[in-house]
Amino acid sequence: MSELSSSDTGLRERKRRQTADHIAATAFRLFEAQGYEPVTMEQIASESDVSKGTLYNYFPVKEALVAHQFRVEIATGMADLGHALRQQPTFAARMTVLLRASAEWNKGRRAYLPHYLRFRWTNTSLGTGRSVPDEYSSGTFRILEALFREGQKAGEVRSDLTAKHLAMSFELLLAGAISVWLDHPEMDLVQNFENALELLLHGAATVAPATSARPSRHKKK
Is the CB of residue 128 less than 8 Å from the CB of residue 135? Predict the structure, then answer.
């Protein structure tokens, strides 16, 4: 009975994922043909051959479709990029390869990034009890977390902070780099990302202090 239940659960999850992928891909065909703003959720439901109730059950708002499609595309891109990352000898080299590929992908999705970023960093539960970042993350966070964890195991990355904490902090730096680039399209996104990596690896100080400049948490009595 337990095996059957597990099998049924796996099948339902696969079908749900396939339906979500189909709806998001259909939405993006409409976005590419008509532009993001003019396309309505009603159109997406009709073209996807699902009811509006089903559509809203999968994607409560239009931006969630963007987030899902981004996740699919990033997962596909990482499958192609995996070999190149494994060939790199250091954490910094692997991160550089990842960021350069990410910059090229972001350039191709520029029209959708403002909608995604606004949605991604808005902590709205959408009635699920879970925040938007947890439910609709593009998938970049998990990739960064894995790279930081590998760097920690190799002794290249500090271990007093968790890989999750480091990935979260760096993802925010990258989001800032993208936001600046969206406001200033003449800038080079690759350079913006590499500046963020430089800041991550070496900080903002011009010269490393001889002793820690971190203030003590304990006040003198």
Answer: yes
Contact 27, 39 (CB under 8 A): yes
2 domain residue, yes or no: no
Q: What is the pLDDT along the chain (221 residues), one digit of tens a residue?
A: 455 566 667 888 889 999 999 999 999 999 999 999 999 999 999 999 999 999 999 999 999 999 999 999 998 888 889 889 999 999 999 999 999 999 999 999 999 999 999 888 775 444 444 444 445 566 788 899 999 999 999 999 999 999 999 999 999 999 999 999 999 999 999 999 999 999 999 888 876 555 544 444 554 44
Q: What are phi and psi of 203, to 5 degrees?
A: 75, -175
| Residue 189 near residue 181 (C-beta atoms within 8 A) | yes
pTM (global) more than 0.70: yes
Number of neighbours of residue 52 by Cβ within 10 angstroms = 12
**154 & 180 share domain:** yes
What is the number of domains present in the chain?
A: 2
Q: Which domain holds residue 23?
A: 8-59
Scanning 40-162, the segments in alpha helix (DSSP H) are 41-48, 52-58, 62-86, 91-108, 113-120, 132-136, 140-153
Q: If we measure between CA atoms, which residue out of 100, 94, 115 comes closest to residue 188?
A: 100
Q: Which position has the token pair 């239009």?
A: 62
Note whether 29 and 135 are same-domain residues.
no
Integer angstrom CA distances of residue 68 from 18, 65, 95, 152:
12, 5, 24, 30
